[in-house]
Amino acid sequence: MKKAFVVDFDGTITVQDVGFSIIKQLASEGWEEIGNLWLSKKIGTAKCGKMQWDLIKHDEEYIKSFVGKFPINKGFREFVEEIKKNSYEMIVASDGYDIYINEILKTNGFEGLKVVCNSAKYDNGWKLSFLNTSEECGFCGNCKKRIVDDLKNRGYKVYYIGDGHSDICASKDADVVFAKSFLKQHYENKELPYHNFDNFFDILEYMKKN
Fold first, then answer.
1. Is 161 in contact with 8 (CB distance < 8 Å)?
2. What is the per-residue pLDDT for 136?
């Protein structure tokens, strides 16, 4: 069976949650209250994002410079090489924004990867776009579940790698789940099967045995 890997970005490919760090360090007062509304599911990602990014007065160049300090998780380079060597499908799926995701991938030499995420452009203020939302749900800006389901419909065995709130829905439809942080806690609380990982060397170890 064909294999496909759907990989979250913030806190998964990167060690830290870059999107959250941008808001926490660069947005003006009020961002935390907005974030709490999102955590309690009173607002979705699109509304939360627009409200929080309205509080950021820095332009694109400043954001790109700011994110240059965030490291990639250990083993990701080797993981990508293994994906390419075996001609597996791989999609970076994020509920974050292209402005920093593409910059970090480019800085680390990962240009050319398939990335599905939200978009943020600066034009006298931040303009956000959400092109892969779900009409059924509407909570996430980028519906990762649709990405997983499309791959499964095309005959792939889907491996999901993630750590956060936006990974819960999509990972349920995957065949194999690698989880850390909040996603790991969710799977443990629900007593659902998953594989723990800290970095991509853990995933590579699994791939060698299966």
1. yes
2. 72
Per-residue pLDDT of the chain (210 residues; tens, 9 = 90+): 899 999 999 999 999 999 999 999 999 999 999 999 998 989 999 999 999 999 999 999 999 999 998 999 999 999 999 999 999 999 999 999 999 999 999 999 998 999 999 999 999 999 999 988 877 776 788 999 999 999 999 999 999 999 998 899 999 999 999 999 999 999 999 999 999 999 999 999 999 998
Domain 2-209 has CATH 3.40.50.1000: yes
**For the sheet containing 176-179, what is the strand order?**
126-129, 114-122, 89-97, 2-7, 156-162, 176-179, 195-196
Q: Is 70 left (phi over 0), alpha (psi -120 to 50) or beta?
A: beta
105-116 as b/e: b if 16+ CB within 10 A: beebebeeeebb
How big, in percent rounded to 5, are the helix, strand and coil portions of the chain? 45, 20, 35
Largest Cα separation within the chain, whole Å, is 52
Separation between Cα atoms, residue 154 and residue 85, nearest integer Å = 21
Torsion of CA 165, 170, 175, 180, to 10 degrees: -20
